[in-house]
Design goal:
Elements lengths: L1 E4 L8 E7 L4 E6 L4 E6 L6 E4 L5 E5 L5 E5 L2 E6 L6 E6 L9 E6 L5 E5 L9 E5 L3 E6 L5 E9 L2 E8 L4 E7 L4 E2 L3 E4 L7 E7 L5 E6 L3 E6 L2 E7 L5 E7 L5 E6 L16 E4 L15
Antiparallel strand pairs: 1-25, 2-3, 3-4, 4-5, 6-7, 7-8, 8-9, 10-11, 11-12, 12-13, 14-15, 15-16, 16-17, 16-18, 19-20, 20-21, 21-22, 23-24, 24-25
Length: 287
Amino acid sequence: MEITRIGDHVLGWGESVVWDERRQRLYMVDCAARTLHWLEGGDGPLHTRALPSMPAGVVPAGDGRLVVALDDGLALVDPDADPARVEPLAAYPEGLGARANDACADPEGNLITGTLNMGPAEGSTWWYSATAGWRLIDPAIANTNGPTAGVIDGAMTLIVGDSSADYFAYPYEPATGAVGERRVFGATGDMAGVPDGATLDAEGGLWCALWGGASVVRFTAAGLDRTVPVPVANPTDVTFGGPGLDRLYLVSAAAGAPEGDGRVDGAVLVVDGLGVRGRPEPRFRLA
């Protein structure tokens, strides 16, 4: 296994990294700077677009644009326009209580997102369809992080991380957003760090960035499977990318990180040699 820094880029608060396999692009945001970024082929110069408010939850859409969670709702962003073309997609539902944080698309092209809270507080997780609108998934998720949906142990499953608790799993019906009984999938209470962004690999393993834990961990249905120390104090999100979907990309936050110990906080990192592959990230289906 090898961990490599990509370029000399430093993100104040890197988040929401996602690989667009159609365009072979690695997207991410800097919440602190209110900017969207990408790397062509996962390498090279860092492309930058300013956004009107703090971005989070970047999800590729079917037409090549991106769905991004902004302060006042979901927006469709065309990053190839300069400046970026931003169009409102959907205001947040009243029950969300604030603005949204992390997001993903499910295998049928619906969106999963939920409340952004910086600590324990009332929050919820929601399903959104371009044709059917918003539906509540779970009214008791303080801070939605690392949502992802796919087949785990032969069953369609939704994973939602709560930065004030654990990673939870639900039996899931993408067409309606219906979920079954919630269970703990990845327990983090005895670990250093708290749940942040996550992604599924092709085998149904959940790779998770642990904010404050200087590590990425993999959970399976059997529990904790692997721990990978990383040279950043606050890893925030991970995604599989590259032509073979066998490289694990990682972003982190530079702001507030302690100094020293050879860390490269805020850098974009890639982990090679894990011996697993990701899956193409589902795309949001437009109406």
